[in-house]
UniProtKB/TrEMBL annotation:
Entry's Gene Ontology molecular function annotations: DNA binding
Location of region: Disordered: 68-90
Record-given protein name: DNA-binding GntR family transcriptional regulator
Pfam families: UTRA
Domain annotation UbiC transcription regulator-associated: ranges: 117-258
Length: 270
């Protein structure tokens, strides 16, 4: 975003309109970042195809050779210096239990706990925190009209430095606007604790799983190959009084996941 655009948004008098404009600009920046990542992958592939070795590229970019090996255009097999080896499978495979075990759901980070149990090096990066219009399925879960502004907390989850999920928590602004849940960066000590601190107690949850082609910037953000699908897991959590509290939409790279299904016993949490 250039300074003029930032100044224009800052000058908007109405705070809600200012927040809306900032959210739209941040979403546009996410698309820009995804596009730049694609251009970088294509440029690295072009350099390697011309004979520049992986180690030399890594030195120029200031990254490790292993990171360069992950920079490949969608649809291209990962190049190697030297004779071609046998076809490789998915770069990483992680497990996403359905439904989530309560002890994992209540931990500081569901994904970090899952990954640690699987011996995978986990990482996460916050992509966006702010208002955005609710899509149809999110609106239904939060019991608002489609297009209603809701609070979104979107992060990218990585396993061994490979992007595997885009996880977005959605909250109603009339319940969570202006609270610590709306603050940027991660909620400490956990999102679950932050929800409970505001007086909400878990009642029940519903999870819906849908397999579909990627939409919007999902393919670029997750570095998906052409034709690769995603699995969308939507978990709607409700308070003990029936209030729609937390809707979590997780977009999983289909080829990098397995989904164990088990009967969960014991107390559940948002």
């Amino acid at each position: 975003m250039d300074d003029t655009t930032l100044e224009d948004i800052t000058a908007i008098a109405d705070p809600v309109e200012r927040a809306h404009a900032a959210g739209l600009a941040m979403a546009a920046q996410q698309d820009l970042v995804a596009g730049l990542a694609r251009l970088r992958r294509e440029a690295v592939a072009e350099a390697r195809a011309s004979g520049v070795r992986q180690e030399a590229i890594a030195r120029r970019l200031g990254v490790t050779p292993g990171r360069v090996s992950q920079m490949r255009p969608a649809g291209a097999r990962e190049a190697v210096d030297g004779p071609a080896g046998p076809p490789r499978g998915p770069r990483v495979v992680v497990r996403r239990a359905l439904p989530t075990e309560p002890a994992v759901r209540g931990s500081a980070s569901l994904f970090m706990t899952e990954a640690d149990r699987q011996g995978i090096r986990a990482g996460r990066r916050m992509l966006y925190v702010g208002p955005e219009p609710a899509s149809g399925h999110v609106a239904a879960a939060l019991r608002v009209e489609p297009g209603t502004e809701v609070l979104a907390r979107r992060k990218l989850l990585l396993a061994d430095d490979v992007p595997v999920r885009i996880a977005t928590s959605f909250f109603r602004l009339d319940l969570f606007g202006g609270t610590p849940i709306a603050a940027p960066d991660f909620v400490r000590p956990s999102l679950q604790a932050g929800i409970e601190a505001l007086g909400h107690r878990f009642g029940h949850a519903e999870e819906h799983l849908v397999a579909r082609p990627p939409a919007g910037a999902e393919a670029g953000t997750l570095q998906l190959d052409p034709g690769e699908w995603v699995v969308q897991v939507l978990r709607a959590g409700y308070g003990d009084d029936g209030t729609p509290v937390h809707t979590l939409e997780t977009i999983c790279a289909a080829s990098r996941h397995v989904f164990p299904i088990a009967q969960v016993t014991g107390a559940d949490e948002f």
